[in-house]
Design a protein that fits this description.
With 203 residues, this protein is α+β, with helices and mostly antiparallel strands. It is 24% helix and 33% strand. The strands form four sheets. Strands 1, 2, 3, 4 and 5 form a five-stranded antiparallel sheet that branches. A four-stranded antiparallel sheet has the order 6-7-8-9, with no helix packed on it. A three-stranded antiparallel sheet has the order 10-11-14, with no helix packed on it. The longest helix has 44 residues.
């Protein structure tokens, strides 16, 4: 009986020692993480020498992407589907287009690029999550600062549900003159399928 009591007492003392040791470790770890987070925020908000920070636009709704037009306009894509133009110090009140997109979670309008010959052909490429939750790459033709859903030319549409997190859908005109598209597909259990890149000639 004494041996059982001693054994239990030993376990209790060991447990208390672990708690006493663990608490400072946890506190130090939390402090270290907090300090690193503060440094990261400071690094992001600190303007490098020789640069100044100026806010150009106000009242945007979850802006996710921008693209620069040859005439100096800035095309701004918002996650819920609006594409706006910033010109001469203001955001134009009429959207270029409002896409029918699923903007929940991290999905929505996530990719935007203007054709290298945009000044002549008005081609605007977008990557977004469709209402049936698939990644889609499309082209629209912009005329006089607007376009319509009727001008949409679908290049590619995913055959699996769009991942609700880290959806990607990035879009870039590469140095090779091709249109590069990155996207994430579906979650199977807890395993996410690989990240994909697709590229092709512009037409």
């Amino acid at each position: 009986m004494k041996n059982v009591f001693k054994s239990k007492l030993s376990l209790l003392v060991t447990g208390l020692l672990i708690v006493v040791v663990a608490v400072p470790f946890i506190m130090n770890s939390a402090h270290s993480l907090s300090a690193r987070a503060a440094k990261a925020v400071a690094a992001v908000t600190t303007v490098p020498s020789g640069f100044t920070k100026t806010q150009l636009a106000h009242g945007l709704n979850k802006p996710t992407v921008i693209a620069f037009a040859p005439n100096g306009d800035i095309y701004i894509g918002e996650q819920p589907g609006n594409i706006l133009i910033y010109r001469g110090g203001v955001v134009l009140s009429t959207p270029v287009i409002t896409l029918n997109t699923d903007g929940s979670g991290e999905k929505g309008l996530l990719g935007l690029a203007l054709d290298p010959n945009f000044a002549n052909n008005g081609y605007m490429y977008v990557s977004y999550t469709t209402l049936d939750e698939h990644a889609q790459l499309s082209r629209f033709t912009v005329v006089n600062d607007i376009t319509s859903l009727g001008s949409e030319k679908v290049y590619l549409k995913g055959n699996q549900l769009q991942n609700p997190h880290h959806s990607a859908n990035d879009l870039r005109i590469g140095p090779d003159g091709k249109l590069w598209w990155g996207w994430k597909t579906v979650v199977v259990g807890w395993r996410q399928r690989p990240f994909h890149y697709q590229w092709g000639d512009l037409d």
